[in-house]
Design brief:
It is an enzyme of class 2 (transferase). Keywords: Amino-acid biosynthesis, Branched-chain amino acid biosynthesis, Cytoplasm, Leucine biosynthesis, Manganese, Metal-binding, Transferase. One of its GO terms (biological process) is L-leucine biosynthetic process. It is globular and about 70 Å long. Helices cover about 45% and strands about 10% of the residues. It is α/β, with parallel strands linked by helices. The longest helix is centred in the last third of the chain and has 17 residues. Helix 2 runs parallel beside helix 3 and helix 14 crosses helix 15. Strands 1-2-3-4-5-6-7-8 form an eight-stranded parallel β-barrel, surrounded by seven helices. The structure holds 3-methyl-2-oxobutanoic acid and zinc ion. The site of 3-methyl-2-oxobutanoic acid has 10 residues, from strand 5 and strand 6.
């Protein structure tokens, strides 16, 4: 097994992200997001759960054919550990140059007793058989023991060993209900590295939910202990409190790369990026996902929230004007914002307005643009400076809430 040079970013916005109330996307919207995820540079797109519905199947299949090119990302479909699920997933990803089947079965006592009504040895046998079955369709098979965060570690080691022996090339460790703390999750990954005899034949991946707001912190501890694939979503959308947020993980690994370098297990230049992500596409991707899913981004959200680079207090403003590093740990340009957010005013024309909205990820129709432009002029008359955040509010108020 070739070990990855960088941390692999597996985006599940279109699968786990879409699994949150109200975030349903149609096929064209999914395709548009997948294209943007490819521009962002994610390594793998989990494009959906092909067996879930004909619409999901079609979306995965279209994304596989259109975005899953030779140079593009790997396209993955989720599948329960069942023949029919796996066969449908295989069918959906077959148009991709590189396709992955991600199959899963729960391993925690509570899931075995109440949900699956199966014994531990039955679960091991199913995992082994289904990984081997998935392997008949593609070499790239990922296996997840669902609810690993609450599973008995000794049982987990056995399941993982058998899944790898059956051909899993990635083993993903989900903290399905966001229950673990960073030190516990780090220790879980360490335990897996030390106790699963064939672990070197697979990549260790992590997947986590934000029920206690700890998903990103958990992942960073996992990286320190050997995880090399991170499963995340744009803006952290997903089941319940959501998934680990891609933008937070990527920027933490970027801003603190010198801190994380020693954990990669190979010599790394101090300025070398730890992921393949083009960070300058982050803001645009965040805007696109927010506007297509209708899930607003909270203003104080790290990295992509409206206040993430805004300075309100006099002391902070004074400091930043003297030297930005006093109160900024990263440059706004790094995520694709203009450094100077104060670019449009009452003298600006429609073209500048349209161009900036496009840069921010808003694709408006002519009618919407006209409406937003009228509002922009009204606001510009009252305010000296119109920031990106004002523009976003104008679009949200005038168009998306209409
Ligand atoms: O949260 C979870 O356990 C999942 C699995 C299907 C990986 O989404
Ligand atoms: Zn999940």
């Amino acid at each position: 097994m070739n070990k990855p040079e960088r941390i692999i970013i597996f985006d599940t916005t279109l699968r786990d992200g879409e699994q949150c109330p109200g975030a349903t996307l149609n096929i064209d919207e999914k395709l548009a997001i997948a294209k943007q995820l490819a521009r962002l540079g994610v390594d793998i797109i989990e494009a959906g759960f092909a067996f879930a519905s004909p619409g999901d199947f079609e979306a995965v299949s279209k994304i596989a054919q259109t975005v899953g090119t030779e140079e593009g990302p790997v396209i993955c479909s989720l599948a329960r550990a069942r023949h029919d699920d796996i066969k449908t997933a295989a069918e959906a990803i077959k148009g991709a140059a590189r396709g992955r089947i991600h199959t899963f079965i729960a391993t925690s006592d509570i899931h075995l007793q109440y949900k699956l009504k199966k014994t531990k040895s039955e679960v091991i046998a199913i995992a082994e058989e289904m990984v081997a079955y998935a392997k008949t369709f593609t070499n790239d098979v990922e296996f997840s023991p669902e609810d690993a965060g609450r599973s008995d570690p000794e049982f987990l080691y056995q399941v993982l060993e058998r899944a790898i022996a059956a051909g899993a090339t990635t083993v993903n460790i989900p903290d399905t209900v966001g229950y673990t703390t960073p030190s516990e999750f780090g220790a879980l990954i360490k335990g897996i590295k030390e106790n699963v005899p064939n672990i070197d034949q697979a990549i260790i991946s992590v997947h986590g939910h934000n029920d206690l707001g700890l998903a990103v912190a958990n992942f960073l501890e996992a990286v320190k202990n050997g995880a090399r694939q991170l499963e995340c979503t744009i803006n952290g959308i997903g089941e319940r409190a959501g998934n680990a947020a891609l933008e937070e993980l990527v920027m933490a690994l970027h801003v603190r790369r010198q801190y994380f370098n020693p954990f990669l297990g190979r010599p790394v230049e101090s300025e070398e990026p730890l992921t393949n992500i083009d960070t300058r596409q982050i803001y645009k991707t965040s805007r696109q996902v927010s506007s297509l899913t209708g899930m607003l981004v909270q203003p104080n959200k790290a990295i992509v929230g409206a206040n993430a680079f805004a300075h309100e207090s006099g002391i902070h403003q004074d400091g930043v004007l003297k030297n930005k590093l006093t109160y900024e740990i990263m440059d706004a340009q790094l995520i694709g914002l203009t450094d100077n957010q104060i670019v449009l005013g009452k003298h600006s024309g429609r073209n500048a307005f349209r161009t900036r909205l496009k840069e921010l990820g808003f694709e408006l129709s002519e009618t919407e643009l006209n409406k937003a432009f009228v509002r922009f002029k009204e606001v510009a008359d009252k305010k000296k400076e119109i920031s990106d955040w004002d523009l976003e509010a104008i679009v949200n108020d005038e168009i998306q809430q209409a």
